[in-house]
Amino acid sequence: MSEELTGYTVAVTAARRAEELGSLLERRGARVVHGPALRILPLADDTELRRVTDECLQHPPDAVVATTGIGFRGWVEAADGWGVGAELLDALSSARLLARGPKARGAVRAAGLPDPWSPTSESSAELLEHLLGEPLDGLRIAVQLHGQPLPDFVEALHCAGAKVIEVPVYRWTAPADITALESLLAAVCAHQVDAVTFTSAPAAASLLSLAAERNCRDELLTALRGPVLAACVGPVTHAPLADRGVPAVIPERFRIGALVRSLCEALPMRSPTLPVAGHSLQVRGHAAILDGEVKQLSPQGTTLLRALAERPGRVVSRPALAAALNCAGGGAADEHAVEQAVARLRSSLGRPQLVQTVIKRGYRLPLEPMGDSPRCADPLP
Questions:
Q1: What are the residues facing 65 on neighbouring strands?
Q2: Which H helix or E strand runs over 250?
Q3: Which of 25, 365, 18 minimizes the C-alpha distance to 195?
Q4: Which among 73, 185, 340, 371 has the fewest CB atoms less than 10 Å away?
Q5: Which range is most confident: 37-41, 43-47, 189-193?
Q6: Which pLDDT band, with edges at 50, 70 and 90, does 39 fall under?
């Protein structure tokens, strides 16, 4: 198991493939919190998908756009379940076939249909540009959706004169039980997680909506604009957050594996490694990495160490540390509580000299060179 994410807590909002994403994160050392933001409406119960399928059977489309592999397969499997699978494939076989990426293309071919055209960029924008390169007036185009609408894509086709049939495969709805999502939301607002992953735009919108209902949207946005990193599988997923000024890590390839690798790079970069008392110290979400060794910390210990690491080499007063503890825990810590918490922190680190007492003033992390590293500049008082 690699340890790029050891010491970090990552929240997962996905409904589908949540177990896969969580496993990938845990293999890299992360602690995972799961709160599904959506529920997938079962295909067999989706009357709208059945209605659209019947429309395609009665009036076969001139072109078919497959946006995702699992979505296209799900459409065919649902049709099989209704006893019209062969008829659907026959209706689609004479159409001009297009697929957004290799997985969608593979699903079309696996269904026994002709090899579809696919853009090299795997982007909906290039696919749309290709479609608009030829006259579309009067053509019927079936666009397989996957969990969310494509308003700009569909509108562009409408403006070109096409009749668009939107095929709503795997539509999202609210979770039947929002308890886990409420816990996830509370953890993000309290800065108890280091990152939140989103694999669909509706999941991001759902979390924002719940925050608005619980009167904590400002706290959520403050967290996501600051200490809690948002990680989105692609720019479409990021859109609801981007509209509210929330930055995000987005991988170059819009895949779950690439999303995890991007987090493995981005999270440690937000935690600088400091030369403290001749040792290498990195403060992470719920742990410290001391000379390459993981030191698990209590919530109070993490709060104290992070407060000291924000001003390395400088003295942080006891009242300031007490305020940090109160802010994180919602309690009423005093200077005596700070002294006790510092003692426990020193014990957890196993190196008492890392947290230096400055008599009558407070505590500091003594910046000192380690090995051949250059000496840090003298800290300000």
A1: 98, 143
A2: none
A3: 25
A4: 371
A5: 189-193
A6: confident
* Mean confidence (pLDDT) of the chain: 88
Distance between CA 29 and CA 19 in Å, rounded? 15
Q: Are 169 and 145 contacting, i.e. CB atoms less than 8 angstroms apart?
A: yes
What would the two tokens of residue 181 be? 């999502």
State the DSSP H helix or E strand holding residue 294, giving kind and residue range, or none if neither.
strand 293-296
pLDDT score for 324: 86
Pick from 238, 241, 240, 234: nearest CA to 255: 234
Secondary structure tally for the chain: helices H, strands E: 15, 17
pLDDT for the residue numbered 375: 43
Query: Token pair of 288, please?
Result: 């410290």
Local structure of 265: helix, strand or coil: helix
Q: How far apart are the first and last CA of the chain?
A: 42
Length of the chain: 381
How far apart are the C-alpha atoms of 231 and 43, rounded to whole Å?
Answer: 29
DSSP states of 62-115 as a string? SEEEE--HHHHHHHHHHHHHTT-HHHHHHHHHTSEEEESSHHHHHHHHHTTPPP
Phi, psi of 326 (to 5 degrees): -65, -40
